[in-house]
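Obj.: predict assembly geometry.
Materials: sequence records (below).
Method: joint structure prediction, all chains together.
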Amino acid sequence: MSGARTAGASRLESAAAATAFQKEWFLRLAERARAGEPIALANADAPHELLRALGIPYVVNQWWSSIISAKRAGPASLAAVAAQGMPDDSRQYDVLPLGAQDLGDTDAPWGGLPEPRFAIAERSGDVTHKIFERWGRRPGTETFLLSRTAAVPAPAGWWDRVAHDWEDVFGAARIDLLEGEIRMLAATLEQRVGRALDHGRLAEIMALANEQAEWNRRTRDLLAAARPLPVAVTDIIPAVMVPQWHRGTAWAVEAARRLHDEVARRIDEGHAVHDGERRRLMWIGRGLWSDLDMYRSFQEEFGAVFVWSMYLAIAADGYARYGDDPKRALAARFVGLTDLLYVPPMSSSWYVKEALAHGVDGVVHLVADDTPAPGVITSALEERGIPVLEIRASNADPRATGDVRERIAGFVRERVPAAR
Amino acid sequence: MTTSAPVIGVVGNDVPRQLLLAVGGHPHRLTGSWEGDIDPVAQQLLGATDVAVTRLLTELREEARAVDGLVVCNDSQAHLRLFYVLRATAPELPLHLLDMPRDDSEPARRFARFQLEALAAFCSGLTGRALDDASLADAAVVEAALGDALRRLRVRRRADPPQCSGAGALDAILDAARLAPSEAVSRIDAAQTSVPAGVTRVHMTGSSHPDAAFYRELERDGRCVVVSEDHDTGDAAWLGPAASGATVAEVIEGLIDAHFERVTTSATATSADRVALTREVAQAAGADVVAAVVRDLDEGPLWDLADQRAALEGRPLISVRVTPGAETESARELVRGLVGPAVPA
Ligand code: SF4
Ligand code: SF4
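Observations (raw structure tokens):
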């Protein structure tokens, strides 16, 4: 780390720290839950900040699912789902935690998730509500569903406006509905846990989350401008995602700041993920968790590095919501968050903006079954002269992604000329 | 009137037709098909989507001008995707999304009111006529007459032996959702066929049927007859309900009540509600067997199967998953399952 360019730089400290913190945190939470404290299982797009303000510890369904996969408990969890007569080939990523509840403490990762007192989700897609309906049938668990309205209106160029101008970006009627439901949920939870929601506390949590988003924005801007890429995307992802699950805490703000500083330092020191960087690639869609090495495997032959994933970018552009009424701002945070990633023209215009800002030469677009209208995103990029490879696969299913490396290699060879 | 009324295409099953009729529109339900062509561009735009909807997009890309405007309901992922794709690729088509909430509550009712008012405004824009008390009352009368005709059809199907085949009934219901109200009533009343006694009576659940091809295949050799269904292009199509009231606001309130009272499609209703509906209708129709036909990528119904199996005491449930191109084989396989090996082919 002398200032000379260091290729294949060692793992980010922020990433290692976040991952270690996360396991610690989970074990503590599980202990408290076993001692009788009510915990919640919340979907990634549920209003977590409300739970935090009420002092209800929560585990995020998609995060827990990623741990179940990483600890190789996925197949057994899916088998448990199938044993109950449910499909094991639909919404695997969302249903793994439900299946894992039947595994027993020794087979489930980290001793398993203690039965949640509350299960909370926004209705997304055709099935999430049915999975959460099942959670609500477990003894001791109560399910709450929030509405997911569709992306109408859908303005392009939302990223400069959404933090302040969210009434306009999402439409007041949609925010009214979710805010009303959040108020109802708050009242019920207050009653269940016998605590009152402190508005000052919620406002504080919202402010911390905004601060965290601002750090993420600075980090993203640094990475967009840096040549060559100083930190691998696979390192950035845990360093940004773990703090997302703790959004609204001082720890999370600090973690986001630390990530920023570490990235800045690496840039100053002249780090390069790969010394002969000649092609910069963007990865659109969820990560391919079954093959993380894949992201590095085009460096030697093609000088191709993956410089972008949605995790940091949406954390940078998608989350900040300023406003005087914390419940309404909270509704505005979640009312259309995933639409920003998936629904054109919000999604397509944003990917184009990010691709240009990062100097991307080619895009690999992983299209999962639940990605709506992928073709529109692909054509928006190609219209700007950025070649796109669409791969249709579930990120959780290794069978579907077997030939991904060969396909990406072929794509880079044939369609992504070396820019440098 | 029928020829001059602007045709408002409807995708999905949440639209209260009374509002469309009251502003002088001609509702025309669009469902795609079991076996039509698939345009690769439509496929690429939609991604992994229920093939019936991909076929529908294929049709719309060929002749979008067959309708004067299009209302798409947010009642399944496939329909919502179709809306997003059309919004992004067919700027010339007047397009509107009806986004009805699912769980009844005060904020949900406020949003539903906003949605129905926006729907009426969109349709008024197509027809040039505003919503008023008198036209809403007239529309209620014609829509209710269609509801009565559908009840008569239901009685014929449930008779023993049935007085209408499943395919005949489904054809009529799909036509009724496309005809002017008065013609729709005669179309429904004309749906009568003789079915021999002793045929296996089938209740159909699972995915909705874009046309009657699957029913026809199922009933082809006369061993089965579909006497009832709970999917939303058949007997659960939202045809007939109408609200009365002294003012526009009261009618809209009545329509919101009706929306929250019915059991909607699998993608939006709980498994518990879906299963209760399946059990009740299959029972009332005296079905011998329940058949669940689930199209690939139409995931909602898959999640109801376990509950359905458990709840249909005494009535077997046979399910098939249908992949594109294998529709006919799936129907034949289903017949074999339904009538069992004991019955000679
Ligand atoms: S990747 Fe998409 S689906 Fe998964 S948690 Fe994030 S927003 Fe939700
Ligand atoms: S986003 Fe990635 S690193 Fe973070 S918790 Fe999920 S799977 Fe793990």
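Conclusions so far: Chain B is about 45% helix and 15% strand.
To do: check interface contacts against the pulldown list.
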